[in-house]
Write a structure and sequence with these properties.
The complex is a heterodimer of chains A (about 500) and B (about 280). Helices cover about 30% and strands about 25% of the residues of chain A. Chain A has helices at about 20-30, 75-90, 125-130, 140-145, 205-215, 230-235, 265-275, 275-285, 305-310, 315-325, 355-370, 380-390, 405-415, 430-440, 445-460, 485, and strands at about 1-5, 35, 40-45, 45-50, 60-65, 105-110, 115-120, 160-170, 170-175, 200-205, 220, 240-255, 290, 330, 335-340, 340, 345-350, 375-380, 395-400, 465-475, 480, 500-504. Chain A is α+β, with helices and mostly antiparallel strands and about 500 residues long. Chain B has about 280 residues and is mainly alpha-helical. Chain B is elongated and about 75 Å long. Chain B starts with a helix and ends with a helix. Classes of the chains: A alpha+beta (about 500), B mainly alpha (about 280). The interface between A and B is medium-sized, with 30 and 22 residues.
């Protein structure tokens, strides 16, 4: 089974990498204790069961027996302890579970198949973080014999359905089927081993080359479909195309430090003037979905109700709001005026990605329809983020990616993140309180409810105007089977579930 | 330049077929720039979301881009930016480089050394890389791009003018002007400057396409014209990922750049043939 990667992984160490393509490879080779099922519930993967103490300060895992690492060693509690200690020590993504964050302060291993996590404070989202592929388990003895920088470079040992075989830099990574694999989660309906005997990940960064290889039938399946080649691939009878939403969302944001946006009617006018369908059809070639809330449908905790409450495209409403706000006259360029001032706004975004560049231009055109002149100031990523952090803009188009809804919404909208990632630059006490509750409340129902209301308030504020959610596009040869199974999971289809792919 | 000289220049220029072809190209670009508002079939910024990436047809002779904008209209309006940038760059280079060359050549000594070392420094840095860095640092946009390209290319004008001045100042009529007590400023601007113009005009014509190509490169790299400005380099960048199935998005702006660059080069070569006395002797 041959797949194509747009990007070469940096290194294949689950505890150190932050790259998506590294995570994809790793998810075939190494595994965390838990997995997330299609309904976003944490489910056992390497464990038989788990239970919380009443005070939610102790979490006990009972490991599955007979789980083998690729080096033939059986996985025990010692391996879990060593892996977690290394994960806490090294991972740039670890910002919740570890002792630094008031999480797990002690890991006890009373016997080979029991692991006890002792928490300093309750961590209601702990199970989701434990299901993160970055918190994967590797053999303690093997780790002890490696310096940190060698893991995932010189070798990699895990419990996953594929064994790391070789990595030819700039060319390919080859994985072999792990014949002893037999513990895939129940929702897969196939415990293992994987159907395909070998996975070859060819690294082809250039979009046109990747497209040519896909069209030539040299790639069995890939998630890195060049968007500009989608039409050609879809029209090719030897290929099949599948789509699923990802958790990567794009949004327009109003900088609340700019006085003009203190009048909510201006924000509402902008929200109603935006036609998400047009943006998706043009900037993303139709290979994305309109986004209604700031948390996307591929993210844990997504509340579908945002689709009902999101501000719909309605030019009459947009114009009415502007007129109510006093922007009644229009100059000869069609720009609205109030007290001799033109309704002119700057919009920042990234110049290096065609989709954002196009989306910014479409937003400019759409706002011009209601008399708002937008000046685009697109620059490379670093310069744009510098401006965003300095709040030096009126409007911005940004993208963010995180599969866990709660920390993601906190990242984007909590007032503690003003000056870093809250590009609305807006402090709203109610949203802050709801986000705190949705993170810390021990009562599951309360936590969920708080998160739903937080999502609703964010949409209602019209400070953040969701635009589009990226879609995972998979192109595969017609003779590749198991794709439906792969897409039965709404979240992160590229991960791990490749074990059900086969060639007819 | 008397009537006789001018008619001799025109006669010689028109005998050069390539130069005439170049003149036609340049004239076409200039006319297009002047009349873009009249001849363009659509507003170059108007998006039609029902006509995304439409291939060339009677309705859209050069097709549409990914946002449904008419490529022909964008290419026609793009000629304005090409000429604006080309002329802006060469005028800035000519003024800055010319004045420095004039001073260096006429004053000589330490001033001359200082100016020429400045030229050496600027020349030691690859032009496009310097322009890229400057445009990136200053934030992009048409005017920033003009300044960034001009800053990297004035040295050639300085060398050219300095060389002319050095040879002119030894001529008898300049010595005579000094002898009769003419002020230095009068000698410089009345007798020296006008006689350096021939090679400067030739070089200006040859520098135009270089400036246009450099601006296209900067826009292609994303530090030039801001969207949705229909600048040719930016238009090519818009279509670079679409070449496999929407070749028209990049191809037509590319052709426009090629025709413009060729036109100015041919005209420049033709002018050099008639204005450069050394070339005349060789002929």
């Amino acid at each position: 089974m041959v797949t194509a990667f747009q990007e070469e992984p940096d290194f294949l160490d689950p505890h150190r990498t932050t790259r998506f393509h590294s995570l994809v490879v790793l998810s075939y080779v190494t595994e965390p204790l838990l997995d997330i099922d299609p309904n976003f519930n944490p489910v056992p993967l390497l464990v038989q069961s788990f239970e919380w103490s009443e005070d939610k300060l102790t979490l006990v895992f009972h490991l599955k027996r007979g789980i083998l690492f690729h080096n033939g060693q059986e996985m025990t509690s010692r391996d879990v302890k060593a892996s977690y200690e290394r994960y806490f020590r090294l991972s740039p993504l670890e910002n919740y579970l570890g002792p630094k964050y008031g999480g797990i302060t002690e890991i006890q291993t009373p016997d080979d198949y029991t692991v006890i996590f002792k928490f300093a404070n309750p961590k209601p989202l702990a199970l989701f973080h434990i299901a993160d592929a970055h918190a994967s388990i590797m053999p303690a003895d093997w780790l002890a014999g490696m310096v940190d920088e060698e893991v995932g470079v010189k070798g990699l040992v895990g419990t996953g359905p594929y064994v790391f075989d070789r990595w030819i830099r700039g060319d390919r990574i080859v994985l072999k089927r792990f014949e002893a694999y037999n513990h895939a989660p129940d929702y897969m309906n196939h415990a293992g081993p994987a159907y395909a005997t070998e996975l070859v990940m060819r690294i082809i960064p250039e979009g046109a080359t990747r497209l040519a290889e896909i069209l030539a039938g040299n790639i069995d399946y890939t998630f890195d479909v060049p968007l500009m080649g989608y039409q050609q691939i879809a029209a090719n009878p030897t290929l099949q195309v599948k789509m699923a939403p990802t958790y990567s969302v794009q949004y327009l944001v109003c900088n609340m430090k700019r006085e003009i946006f203190n009048d909510k009617r201006i924000r509402l006018a902008i929200a109603h003037a935006i036609n998400k369908e047009e943006i998706v059809r043009s900037a993303w070639f139709g290979i994305a979905l309109p986004l209604y809330g700031l948390v996307g449908p591929g993210t844990t905790g997504y509340w579908k109700g945002v689709e009902e409450i999101a501000y719909a495209y309605d030019l009459e409403k947009a114009i009415a709001y502007l007129e109510q706000a006093g922007w009644t006259t229009v100059d000869r360029d069609g720009v609205r005026m109030k007290d001799g001032r033109r309704l002119e706004l700057t919009l920042i975004s990234f110049s290096n990605v065609d989709q954002w560049k196009a989306a910014a231009q479409v937003v400019q055109t759409q706002l011009a329809r209601v008399g708002i002149k937008v000046n685009l100031e697109l620059a490379e990523v670093g310069a744009t983020y510098d401006r965003a952090r300095a709040a030096n803009y009126d409007l911005g188009i940004f993208r963010n990616t995180w599969w866990m809804g709660q920390p993601y919404l906190t990242f984007l909208t909590h007032s503690v993140n003003i000056g870093s990632s809250n590009f609305g630059q807006w402090k709203n006490d109610v949203i802050d309180t709801l986000l705190n509750l949705s993170s810390n409340a021990l009562d599951d129902a309360l936590r969920r409810e708080a998160f739903i209301v937080a999502q609703a308030l964010v949409v209602e504020s019209a400070v953040w105007i969701p635009l589009a959610v990226n879609v995972n596009v998979m192109a595969a040869r017609r003779d590749v089977g198991g794709l439906d199974k792969l897409f039965s999971h709404p979240w992160q289809p590229p991960l791990m579930r490749a074990l059900v792919l086969y060639k007819q | 330049m008397n009537q006789l000289t001018l008619s001799r220049i025109v006669r010689k220029f028109t005998r050069n077929r390539l130069a005439l072809v170049g003149l036609v190209f340049v004239a076409a670009v200039v006319l297009t720039a002047l009349l873009a508002g009249v001849i363009a079939p659509y507003d170059p910024l108007a998006m039609n979301f029902d006509a995304l990436l439409v291939s060339p047809s009677a309705t859209h002779p050069m097709g549409t881009d990914m946002l449904g904008r008419d490529v022909l209209s964008r290419v026609l309006y793009g000629s304005r930016y090409a000429l604006l940038i080309g002329m802006g760059v060469v005028v800035l280079q000519m003024v800055l480089g010319g004045i420095l060359g004039l001073i260096a050549g006429f004053v000589g000594g330490v001033v001359d050394s200082l100016v020429m070392r400045m030229v050496d420094i600027v020349w030691s840095i690859p032009g496009l890389v310097l322009a890229l860095a400057l445009a990136g640092a200053l934030g992009g946009g048409i005017w920033v791009m003009i300044i960034a390209i001009a800053v990297t290319g004035w040295g050639q004008f300085t060398r050219l003018v300095r060389g002319q001045v050095l040879s002119l100042r030894e001529l008898d009529y300049i010595t005579a002007a000094h002898a009769v007590g003419a002020p230095r400023r009068r000698i410089l601007f009345r007798h020296v400057l006008p006689n350096t113009l021939g090679p400067v005009i030739v070089y200006t014509t040859l520098e135009m396409p270089t400036a246009i190509l450099a601006s296209a490169a900067l826009s292609f790299l994303g530090v030039g014209a801001q969207p949705p400005t229909p600048e040719w380099g930016a238009l090519i960048a818009d279509g670079r990922g679409l070449v496999g199935f929407a070749w028209w998005v990049s191809t037509f702006p590319g052709l426009a750049i090629m025709i413009t660059a060729l036109g100015f080069n041919f005209v420049g070569d033709g002018l050099r043939d008639v204005l450069d006395p050394r070339f005349e002797r060789r002929v």
